[in-house]
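ok trying this again, last paste got cut off
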Amino acid sequence: MRAHVLVCRGPDCASRGAQDVYTAEAWEVERRGLSEEVVQTQSGCVGPLCGGGPVVCCYPTGAWYAPVAPTDAAAIVERDLERGEVVHGLAAARLEGAA
């Protein structure tokens, strides 16, 4: 596994279009041929960014992105999940010490 992406599906993020973000991310992972290397998970509320979602968390970079729109999926997949670079224009936070 190269990377893991979590898309918040808590009530607030869900009401702000998290399912569309999840679908766009999954499509982009598949389109780039990364489905064997990237695990995508729907999660519950991720806490600190509640109210500013949809929230997407990526590892191993440790970046949290919010608010994320479906149109942001390509940048997140290409730069964060494929290259391991934080997408600074979308990044809301970074967990120091992330693997």
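PB: full thing came through this time. The two ends are 13 Å apart (CA to CA).
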